[in-house]
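User: Sorry, folds how?
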Amino acid sequence: MNTLLLIEDDHRLANMVSEYLEQSGFSVQHAPNGLNGLKTLQDIHPSMVLLDLMLPDMDGLEVCKRIRALPGTLAQTPVLMLTAKGDPMDRIVGLELGADDYLPKPFEPRELLARIRAVLRRHAPHETTKTSHQTLKFGSLELDRDARTVTVQGQVCDLTSYQFDLLWVLAERAGRVLSRDQIMGAVRGRELEAFDRSIDVHMGRIRTAIEDDPKAPKRILTVRGVGYVFAKQQD
């Protein structure tokens, strides 16, 4: 059973969400503030964190930042950020700090459940066999699908599970121009929502991790008015 950590100061909402998710087969631990949430995270090692943006002791952005700075696998814990009013800047900053997804309040419980399951599917380790192991190499850049790691010149790049999937979709189709909708459809299984440009934020994070100069990328190229293309020829 997957254990979810819900960091939310609204006890009424937390009880409602916890009850709904537990009926759907999850175990839910609730923390009412950021510090308690960070401690609980290190105690229980949850499968995923549901993180409210507005907390009494520190905002969710700071909590997310601290999660990504934790040692070992704790730093890779998937984070779904709950953003009040769906403020676009909150979403962008949250994604830049390493959140895997976001959901604006108020939300439908069924959509929350669907997003949780989608993030967990992306983060789940792939079964490995002698014939299924997949790696992609482009010069000094290497992607290992089973280990879900990206390295440049042997150095591991800091990417979230969702960012790895975005990069894999592009790299697997190197040389093909993909629209934002095609990329999102391949990763999330749905089309891009209207005015949703979170994918651009993620691409910026990926470029920072894998490009020698993120401002002059040579691996992930933007095709103006269309989308992105992963360059076949690299260093």
Summary: Helices lie at 11-23, 34-44, 60-68, 88-96, 109-123, 161-172, 180-188, 198-210.
